[in-house]
Fold DNA-binding MarR family transcriptional regulator.
Amino acid sequence: MTATPLRLDDFLPYRLSVTSNLVSDHVAGAYRSLFGLSVPEWRLVAVLAEADGLSQAAIGERTRMDKVSVSRAARALEGRGLVTRLADARDARARALSLTDAGRGLHALVAPRAKAMEAAIFACLDPAEATQLKVLLARVEASLTAADPTAGSAADKK
Amino acid sequence: MTATPLRLDDFLPYRLSVTSNLVSDHVAGAYRSLFGLSVPEWRLVAVLAEADGLSQAAIGERTRMDKVSVSRAARALEGRGLVTRLADARDARARALSLTDAGRGLHALVAPRAKAMEAAIFACLDPAEATQLKVLLARVEASLTAADPTAGSAADKK
DNA sequence: TGATATTGGTATCAACTGAAACCATTTGTG
DNA sequence: CACAAATGGTTTCAGTTGATACCAATATCA
């Protein structure tokens, strides 16, 4: 028996990559043109709005960005007066990141816009389908990180 | 009423990006270490195995890669003796790409491996779910490309 | 306590990517 | 036919990215 030939169009890693890039480009363009934010910067703002005072390492873990990206985004945002990076009293190496008032203001501006974009992009799915999509993606992600614990983490590679 | 706050972990563009990057990295690492192929190169081989003799522009359309990436991948593969690029008799600008025997041989090696990886990565989904995932992704992709016809195409920008 | 390994964060560098400029050819269109 | 516009491909260049090396501070442990 011949194995069914591989059709690129049916190949899930390919499909996933194409769709994801399409969405990313779309969203990234909006952040950039409307707010001058890169995606890493936006992620940082978003996560700090949820949990203030995180260290860069903690942010890296939550957002699955590597520490170099976090560092760059953090400095850029600090330069724009959107976040502060206070020395941590307990650990002189670490810096606790917080949104400034300006940062909080920006977040208040960006967040609704982001939700609107999400709604627009995924308007082609009904709510149950959108949930289903999230669930499936989460399962894939979990299984993949379980298989390779070092994958995508911000932890130093051995 | 206060809008529900944006939780990054629930934000679909973010989820999609994280999962896709995880899968991509996983797969790309395998292509590279096992066969010395980059993802663009692998896509080119895969698409030529399905339809031989395509022009680079046609490949770009099918794989959603821009023409620079296609050009680079094509030249790299030609350099390795995996594809030929014959001058098209009808259009002296175009080149018809074909897999050489070696290219075909490599594809015969890579394809099963790719399918096995796909199976392993998505083993956490039952077949119906995998299909559902493809369907949902395709819908998102279609709606997004309909909204912005220039997105992701290899066509020259105006 | 000192030696060693770890960890938070930054700097550096090489690779990848895509936009724009470019060349050569082909396709309109008068 | 001639000339503008469009198309296939390549080159160039600038921006982004992540691996690696690195520095400083902390943790571990004899």
About this structure: Chain A touches chain B through 62 residues (CB under 8 Å).
